[in-house]
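INFO  loader      accepted 1 record
INFO  loader      residues=102
INFO  predictor   begin
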Amino acid sequence: MAIVQQIQKRMIVSLAQIAKDLNLHEGDHLIIEEKDGGIFLRPVDWVDKNQKYFWTKEWQEKMKRSQEALENGEYKTFSNMDEAIKDLEELVHANNNKNQTV
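INFO  predictor   done
INFO  writer      dumping tokens
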């Protein structure tokens, strides 16, 4: 736990190690919450940092392909988990055979 000092008109300093641990950089946004007699700082962005991957170009392309596949009926349904597992195993087996050379 870091100890900080309040100075000059409610400005808090000495958060460098916490910022480093949380991968915060100059210009990042924080929510400051007063709760249960304490002050809590939580990193935020226009997109939550835990979900930033979702907004990458690569992930959005995967989402687009998935949406198109759904719209084109390119999916399977299963009555139970065993059927789904069997189908996945058959797919893996087929791919393994396809990759083998004679």
